[in-house]
């Protein structure tokens, strides 16, 4: 039912009951659509989706790249310590 268009029938002889059914069906579909949109933009759900994306990216990091990043961080810290000690002399 979701995604189906509710088009009025070409019949001009629709009874009031049939029209009411069509209106009710359209109302139900609209309610589902609004609920789905609200669920998608809810801040808590956006945060959950974002965290899941981050977790997936972190899980797929190449170990060599991570090792290179760690080595660069250690190198920078070492350089900082050496330069700081030189300034104190």
What do these coordinates show?
This protein has 89 residues and is an all-alpha fold. The protein has one domain. Helices cover 78% and strands 0% of the residues. It has three helices and no strands. The radius of gyration is 30 Å and the shape is rod-shaped. The mean pLDDT is 85.
- Shape descriptor: rod-shaped
Number of helices: 3
Instruction: List how many beta strands DSSP finds.
Output: 0
- The class by helix and strand makeup works out as mainly alpha
> What is the straight-line distance between the termini?
78 Å
Task: Please summarize the sheet with the most strands.
Answer: none
Share of helical residues: over 70%
Strand content: under 5%
Radius of gyration: 30 Å
Low-confidence stretches: none
Summarize the structure.
The protein contains three helices and no strands.
Blueprint (SSEs and pairs):
Elements: H1 16-41, H2 43-59, H3 63-88
Question: Which short descriptors sum up this protein?
Answer:
89 residues; mainly alpha
């Amino acid at each position: 039912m979701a995604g189906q268009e509710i088009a009025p029938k070409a019949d001009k002889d629709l009874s009031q009951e049939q029209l009411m059914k069509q209106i009710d069906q359209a109302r139900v579909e609209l309610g589902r659509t609004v609920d789905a949109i609200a669920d998608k933009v809810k801040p808590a759900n956006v945060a959950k989706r974002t965290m899941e994306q981050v977790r997936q990216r972190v899980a797929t990091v190449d170990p060599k790249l991570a090792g290179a990043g760690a080595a660069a961080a250690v190198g920078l810290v070492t350089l900082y310590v050496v330069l700081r000690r030189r300034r104190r002399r």
